Amino acid sequence: MRLAGKVAIVTGGASGIGRAIAQRLAGEGAALVIADLERSSEVAEALAGAGARAIGLRTDVANEDDAARMSEQAAQAFGRIDILVNNAAYFSAIEQRPFGEISVDEWRRAMDVNVLGTFLCCRAVVPHMRRQKAGRIVNLASPTAIKGSPHFLHYVTSKGAVIALTRALAREVGKDGITVNALAPGFTLSDGVLDRQRPSAEYREALNRTRSIQRDQHPADVVGAAAFLASDDAAFVTGQTLVVDGGSAMV
What we know:
The chain is an alpha/beta fold. The protein has one domain: Rossmann fold (3-Layer(aba) Sandwich). Helix content is 47%, strand content 15%. It starts with 6 loop residues before the first strand and ends in a 7-residue tail after the last strand.
């Protein structure tokens, strides 16, 4: 129960990796704010039914007012904000295509959700953490930004920006007792990926051959690293990118 008494916000926390992280943080004692466009209240109720303190907030992270409202309502509900996991992302709906075929609208959508959304949520939550002189921010990045994976140029670029944002913000808020780290999961068989992208067995086998641990990655593979970065065990870790992909990208 190393997160007992802590309050965590998980954006995109109603499904996939976000839900798995929320469940792990709740299991370690944290109160949870599930911020998502859909099913946030449903997931919060399920956590509460399992004994956790939890609320759901409908949140569009790319909307400035929504991000501010999320922060204020979380603080009103629980009295503090200790952990922010910026998990909400535009990914599972993306189709692989050459960069010249990516529309401006799709490029902007990736930047709005993945980069602007991360910025807005950090900006909304940091004042609460500064008043406490403590906080943990975990931004979800991707090994694709390290490997330079093709045919996802807008997504890869957005996650590279998240890594850069993480490093720069860590420099700004370290004096306030706030750590900022990036967590970079590999291609994970989350709900959205299985429902929308439906990766073939051949694709998964080819991907797994690039890994040192040659198997599919699941949301449960990510949660231990997320809980570590959110805890006091990582109190002297900041500005880092922790890759969790079975040893495909090594940094």
